[in-house]
Request: fold
Amino acid sequence: MNHLKLKWAIGLFSVLSFAWSCSPEGSKDNLLLLSNLLSGNANGSSASSLKALSTTVTVGSVSFPLSTNGRYIVDSNNKRFKLKAVNWYGASDTHQVVGGLDQQPISKIISLIQEWGFNAVRLPFSNKMLHDTTVVPNDYIAANPQFAGKIPLEIYDLTVQALTDAGIVVVLNNHTTFSEWCCGYDYNGLWYHTGSTFAYNQSTDMWQSDWIMMINRYKNNKLVAAADLRNEVRTQRKGDTYIPDSPNWGSGDVNDWHKAAQDLGNLVTIANPDILVIVEGINWWGLVPIVGSGERPHLKPVKDLPIHLRLSNKLVYSAHNYGYIGPNNNGDDTTSGNNIKYRDMDLNTFRSTIYSEWGYVTDPDYYYTSPVWVSEFGASPSTTLDTDKEWLKRLVDYLIERDMDFAFWPLNGNDEWGLVSSDWSRTLKDDWRYQDLGRLLSTTGNQGQSILADHFSNLSIGNGDDNSSTLASDWDNGANKGTCPDGYRMNGLSTNYKALCTDTNYGILWNSNQSYNVQAVNETGTRYHGTGDWAGGFTKYECPQNYVVAGFSKRWWGTSGILCEPSNRSLGNSCRTVWFDRGDNRSSTRGGDWASGSYKGQCADNEYVGGVAQKNGGASALLCCR
Reply:
């Protein structure tokens, strides 16, 4: 694999010829656009009532659009759709069009994708490509004269159309900012770049605007089913220097990938409520990879701080895995010392490592449970290392055992790791990789089966709003608010301002009119459930009968109110008090440890929260009813 080789020096040390983990391969106007999207003024969308577009398209046995249900991607009939993809790159490289168009007609290349058995393509683009008005030279499209005279984005359009016309799902992938070979210690590690090196600066606002343009561009094509927000977020060069600029997860600053992904993900679902939002974990943070520095966290931070979209059934996480890298190894022995690589791990270490990095997210019944798409993995057919072959076998075993979605890297015949011949005329099923890749593609798992799942989600409002609902109203003005996903009810609360939401036992409860009631700090303390003073000496916020608590709020002094949503059915009125001011009091442990390190109360699975009690600002008790 021809990785980008770089030479650089900083301070007292130097790093030579290293590669990262990845594959070989108008400001005011922007702010106005984003403001319009958030306020529901763009393209007729409404932030207050995000609903899937009404049109469905059926291809074979699959009905689009796609959504998620627990740890699975499902179609519009709630049948599992297994994303079996291949990466087809080129649009993020200097050519700015997918590979192979100079060798074979696009219809021939698509037939090879189908021959392999892939049902989807991860299709990279660079931000620079989107704005390049230079006509693509004929040399790059020689076998496709119908593309003559077109600019890169127009050829990307035609590639998308050809794939979806053939019934192949397309995942839009923002791979790089600049159109250059990815992914080293360069200017593409973060989603923005400021500096003069390439005379192309990109702000976070510009990145968001590019994405909204792409979402709107393919909005009416239901097989353009997902938006992969950014490839391999990692430490990059700061400005025009060699100083490391590291991403983080949750700090709230300009390098906060959690915030950037969540903000853009919500904008994407406002522009197109049908599309899946794919968020890859952090590929590397800390210093650039020298001996003993930096880490590859992938999705580890999700356990402490999940992504919360206002359309909670549109989130998919993503991770990559290659044999030649490791948790603290960038793939180059010179700069990574003896830090272990995935291919050199024993079986138990390998399995426990990838489970902790990303596999755990697919465990059911947790507040973070979501699908995980392993959107890059691959190996060279010419390797002489038995450890490479064993690594691929182990990874495929894991993907089959966990029934996970995947995307092989790459299709490209001009890549030594590719799955088609160098002239793009035939599939390569005659090398050692086919034994494992073939069984991965032929294993259907739960594909096509209806999915039944309970759902859990946590809220955290210690540092600001956490809105997992399409409800856009500021229902407690001036307070930090946490709102459960649409139709979920609150099932637990902690002393550190975290909550557990669920739909278990009852399913979706919110009345279709999406009205609500707020019991806030100025309430009179009316009792609705005939329970008397269920928390004597404490301030109580209690929902009316047949309403459920679906959110909570706090001000500087503490808990200040609850959001009550009307139920779509009559609810029982037998209630009890669950105290958690002096320790955990959980009638159910489902959902996992959703408020680690804090006292928490949790109702039983067949109960709903009818009220919250607090004293001196601190949440102390729940009114659990059935």
